[in-house]
Write a structure and sequence with these properties.
The protein is α/β, with parallel strands linked by helices. It folds into 2 domains: 106 residues, Tetrapyrrole methylase, N-terminal domain (Cobalt-precorrin-4 Transmethylase, domain 1, 3-Layer(aba) Sandwich), CATH 3.40.1010.10; 137 residues, 2-Layer Sandwich (Methyltransferase, Cobalt-precorrin-4 Transmethylase, Domain 2), CATH 3.30.950. The strands form 2 sheets. A 6-stranded mixed beta sheet has the order 6-7-10-8-9-11. The protein is elongated and about 55 Å long. The two termini are 34 Å apart.
Length: 261
């Protein structure tokens, strides 16, 4: 019997790969990738030359059984997504479920995911939280937000830059414009940024400054008065950039689009 490894990949900085993740990818008989072109860049960087197989949300229903047969036959497979941990707002659940059903061992390596650094850096309570990922784009979006009105824990959303303003406006309408929020973008990249304040303040900021890159929204829960209030920090309504000089060598100036979201 083989084994499936679920392998997190960097959300920004290529140095966020673990030694174990690199070793597993080098030893795997095949690597399942959400986008083979994106994963190919990472694999080339770490001199990994295993068989690369396309496995994404549009074909996973058709490929799951074939993959499980290879694993059941004794092969070692590794599953990666474009960035972060597979299964977290990325393909992975269907394959893992089928492996569990058929007795194929699954091991998930610890590693990068975007929402953890965004949550911990938000200044909002992070001991308990509610992960919502991407909201429905149309049907069910409003009802999902309404269902979260009484949620006391910090709430985590993923969002695209083109929909950020609309989402912040909807959050202000449902939760009130004085609810605290932190918007993180470009986690682990050259121009990582955290914008903290009330929904009204953060919305005003992004109305003046175009949002770029992948977005994580951390919304305060109902009636939460965190020990460290984002509004108590200097320039709470302004962008706070974290620059890592080591990224320059790996990712250039930051002006070119980075495929690792």
């Amino acid at each position: 019997m083989g084994r499936l490894y679920v392998v997190p990949t960097p959300v920004g900085n290529l140095e966020d790969m673990t030694f174990r993740a690199v070793r597993v990818l080098k030893e795997a008989d095949f690597i399942l990738a959400e986008d083979t072109r994106t994963s190919g860049v990472l694999l080339q960087h770490y001199d990994i030359h295993g068989e690369l197989v396309s496995h994404h949300k549009f074909n996973e229903h058709e490929t799951v059984q074939q993959v499980v047969r290879r694993l059941a036959g004794g092969q070692i497979g590794a599953l990666v997504s474009d960035a972060g941990t597979p299964g977290i707002s990325d393909p992975g659940f269907l394959l893992v479920r089928e492996c569990v059903r058929q007795g194929v061992e699954v091991q998930t390596l610890p590693g990068a995911t975007a929402f953890v650094p965004a949550l911990v850096s938000s200044g909002l309570p992070c001991d308990k939280f509610c992960f919502e990922g991407f909201l429905p784009q149309k049907k069910g979006r409003q009802s999902r937000l309404e269902a979260l009105k009484e949620e006391p824990r910090s709430i985590v959303f993923y969002e695209s830059p083109r929909r950020l303003l609309k989402t912040l406006q909807q959050l202000a309408e449902v939760f009130g414009e004085e609810r605290n929020v932190s918007v993180a973008r470009e986690i682990s990249k050259l121009h990582e940024e955290h914008v903290r304040g009330t929904l009204k303040e953060v919305l005003a900021h992004f109305e003046q400054t175009e949002p770029l890159g992948e977005i994580v929204i951390i919304l305060a829960g109902k009636n939460v008065n965190p020990d460290v209030n984002p509004n108590d920090t200097p320039d709470a309504n302004s962008q706070l950039s974290t620059l890592n000089p080591q990224l320059s060598m790996l990712m250039g100036t930051g002006k070119k689009k980075n495929k690792y979201k």
